[in-house]
Write a structure and sequence with these properties.
The protein contains 2 helices and 25 strands. 3% of the residues lie in helices and 42% in strands. It has helices spanning 3-9, 18-21; strands spanning 40-45, 55-57, 63-67, 78-82, 89-94, 106-111, 117-121, 132-139, 146-156, 159-165, 168-173, 183-190, 199-200, 213-218, 230-235, 241-245, 251-257, 260-268, 280-283, 288-293, 298-303, 308-314, 328-334, 337-342, 359-365.
Length: 367
């Protein structure tokens, strides 16, 4: 069985009926977009990065992209670095191999205030039995080079997004795999919890008792039959958390009040407006949350002040060779630009129809 078949079987997306599929995905021509925001090519990788995903930047402004490489696993998972000064790409760190699966699949990631890089190791598509984890890459504070890596949080189902704030790491777990419940969750683990070894979150049957769980998201039946819950995640300037479901596009905010997070509050819950939320990223200059819509090859934004969702860019099916979006999974504001990673790994119901040989990052100059 090839890797694409394995992915489809785990339930990320199911078969779609012709009757409901007629209106999805929406054609790019149905939207009015500004051509000055037309994506261009930022980087085209060879097979060493056959599935680009999460992105991060360090304090020096260097840019990083993770490569879980689900399509061609003969190329191991890795984290690539783009040096801002030299404009050169290199392998920053080869993904830490799991002792049970022998593989590593880095996805969402971010640098912490401690200078180390934290990333989600998504083992779900190889072993669904709580093998996913959060990994820390220990970085030399003087040279910026990766020294080693170790597991800091374990017993996760599908580790996806990772963010750091203060002395804690935050992450999403997209599948709880509980009968008749399509749940995902947002977790927060303080650095002190893994000072002497990995912190361990509870099995999903006991999720309500988990001290690290902030709240759960639920994915409702949708036109794709996709039950993937909480996926991307980011903070705004006030520390509020934004997240959304990959399966049905339910988009939430979790507000920070008096140092504690409240429950997830709905911002958008309409598949016609937003059918899929993958990666999300905060744009401080405009006070927007950028949203990668993998289903429609689109980037949208949530205007926090005006509480309004807007389409930023959308295009039809493409291989991405010219920089157009090809199943965008993550977006990140970097150096005055929006960088988008194109996952390009077909799921039922998405606009992207082919796992092509072009593996890219797109770039849009921001207003």
């Amino acid at each position: 069985m090839n890797n694409v078949s394995k992915w489809a079987l785990v339930g990320v997306a199911a078969a779609v009926t012709c009757q409901t599929m007629a209106q999805f995905p929406q054609k790019a021509s149905e939207f009015s977009v500004n051509e000055k925001f037309r994506p261009k090519l930022f980087k085209q990788f060879g097979e060493i990065v056959n599935v680009p995903d999460g992105m991060a930047q360090d304090k020096q402004g260097n840019f990083y992209v993770s490569a879980p490489n689900f399509i061609d696993q003969s190329y191991p998972g890795a984290i690539m670095k783009f040096d801002k000064k030299t404009k050169q790409w290199s392998v920053f760190y080869a993904a830490l191999r799991h002792p049970d699966t022998g593989l590593g699949f880095p996805m969402g990631m971010e640098f912490g205030d401690d200078g180390n890089l934290y990333y989600a190791d998504n083992q779900y598509f190889t072993d669904k039995n709580y093998k996913s984890r959060v990994v820390r890459v220990n970085v030399d504070p003087k040279t910026g080079e990766a020294l080693s890596a170790d597991t800091v949080v374990e017993n996760i189902k599908l580790a996806n997004a990772v963010r750091c704030r203060g002395n804690a790491v935050y992450f999403t777990d997209t599948f709880f795999d509980l009968p008749d419940k399509n749940l995902g969750g947002v977790y927060c683990v303080p650095f002190s919890a893994f000072k002497n070894g990995p912190a361990k979150i509870l099995n999903k049957e006991d999720y309500a008792k988990d001290p690290y769980l902030l709240d759960v998201a639920s994915c409702t039946p949708n036109h794709r039959g996709d039950n993937a819950a909480s996926d991307g995640m980011c903070f705004d300037k006030d520390g509020n958390i934004y997240t959304g479901n990959f399966g049905d596009g339910h988009f939430y905010v979790m507000k920070l009040k008096n140092g504690k997070y409240g429950k997830l509050e709905t911002l958008v819950n309409d598949t016609k407006l937003l059918p899929c939320v993958d990666g999300v990223n905060y744009y401080a200059k405009k006070d927007w949350i950028f949203i990668a819509d993998s289903e429609r090859n689109a980037i949208l934004y949530w205007d926090i002040k005006n509480k309004k969702l807007e389409m930023f860019w959308i295009n039809d099916d493409t291989d991405g060779a010219d920089g157009l979006l090809d199943q965008p999974c993550e977006c990140m504001v970097w150096d005055g630009k929006l960088i988008i990673s194109n996952f390009d790994m077909t799921f039922p119901g998405l606009k992207n129809s082919v796992n092509d040989k072009v593996h890219t990052l797109s770039v849009i100059n921001l207003p």
